[in-house]
Structure to design on (259 residues):
């Protein structure tokens, strides 16, 4: 998913922004705005799928006060599609019932606003449309997207809208012969959540600390047992040995800290 940030050009009128589904009559303008904004070139099949609603949902922004008969022409857009949670590339960042194969996600494909309409809150409103749509689907657990690593305005926007940046993906994009990293952002809906919430992380850290203490105590105890004793050992004396379960918990805790 890409979103370009360019300088806002001053409008000669007061815009009246309205949001509606993208239609077949928007095809030419949709292609033009994508070409103007994005370094990636999209196939014509993509645009046909958008305007005809074939596997893609979309919203467009128009300016009802735009002069010269352009008051229903797109000045912004967002496109997205439904993905099965079990088939997604973010399964590791979800806590959900894997036995329920119908659980879904919404993936934002493209988001853009014409240069002269920047900084008017249009991009935020378009994202809100996607979140509202996802929230109304009972099986949906999250909205997610990718942002190219140098797009600081887009990164700031998603963080401001409470998307969680969960991972940096090296060389995710290949544009004009050069690789670029991307950030993965997730917004949870309908009870969807990260596999490790802040509270769960604290509990896990405490458990790991206790486990580490027990393991250290066990090693000290074993070391002491090897030393010659002046006193005879009692049959009821025992040793606190590190268990396989304790070692596994410690390893899992270390991994979870980075999720």
């Amino acid at each position: 998913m890409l979103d370009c940030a360019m300088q806002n050009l001053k409008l000669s009128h007061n815009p009246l922004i309205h949001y509606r589904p993208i239609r077949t009559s928007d095809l030419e303008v949709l292609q033009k705005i994508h070409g103007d904004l994005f370094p990636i070139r999209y196939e014509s099949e993509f645009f046909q799928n958008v305007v005809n609603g074939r596997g893609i949902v979309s919203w467009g922004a128009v300016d009802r006060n735009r002069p010269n008969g352009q008051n229903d022409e797109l000045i912004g857009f967002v496109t997205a599609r439904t993905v099965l949670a079990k088939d997604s590339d973010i399964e590791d960042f979800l806590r959900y019932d894997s036995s329920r194969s119908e659980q879904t996600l919404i993936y934002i494909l493209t988001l853009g606003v014409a240069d002269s309409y920047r900084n008017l809150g249009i991009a935020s409103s378009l994202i809100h449309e996607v979140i509202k749509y996802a929230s109304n689907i009972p099986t949906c657990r999250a909205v997610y997207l990718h942002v190219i690593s140098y797009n600081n305005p887009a990164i700031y926007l998603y963080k401001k809208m409470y998307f969680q940046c969960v991972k940096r993906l090296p060389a995710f994009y290949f544009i004009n012969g050069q690789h670029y990293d991307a950030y993965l952002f997730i917004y949870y809906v309908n009870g969807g959540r990260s596999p490790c919430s802040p509270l769960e992380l604290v509990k896990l850290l405490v458990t790991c600390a206790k486990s580490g203490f027990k393991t250290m105590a066990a090693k000290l105890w074993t070391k002491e047992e090897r030393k010659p004793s002046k006193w005879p050992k009692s049959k009821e004396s025992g040793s606190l040995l590190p268990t396989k379960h304790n070692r596994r918990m410690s390893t899992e805790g270390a991994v979870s800290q980075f999720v």
Observations:
- The first helix runs from residue 27 to 37.
- Residues 50 and 82 are 13 Å apart (CA to CA).
